[in-house]
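Pasting as-is:
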Amino acid sequence: MGQLQMPDEVFNWIKAFFDGHSHCTLYSGEVSAYADIQASVIQGSGLGPVAYIVTAADLRPKHHGNFLIKFADDIYMIVLAENSRTCIVELAHIDDWAEKNNLWLNCAKMKEIIPSEWKERTGSTTSTSLRWN
């Protein structure tokens, strides 16, 4: 946000909005202890989606022919079969970007998707799409 041209009072309001937030969870009638939110995007807030869009604006794929689709707080990485050798480098690039932006990859949500039509047509399983948030 600091790289955008905006009036100081708007920047200061946004900064104040993100400072000092905490979170607790209500489950089965029990409330957890509060934990400080360290991320630059507060999920569920009115400003969260806009903050993510601004934050993710500079994230681009490293290799020509690969694609990143960004939606809400998810990113879909699409790697064509001819670029399958670039998957690890692309993931490392995104992981570095996330770390620099105080975000993290949730590896438990990563999925490899091989379209069945692709496999049936080519016999290949090297077309890869990964999802994380």
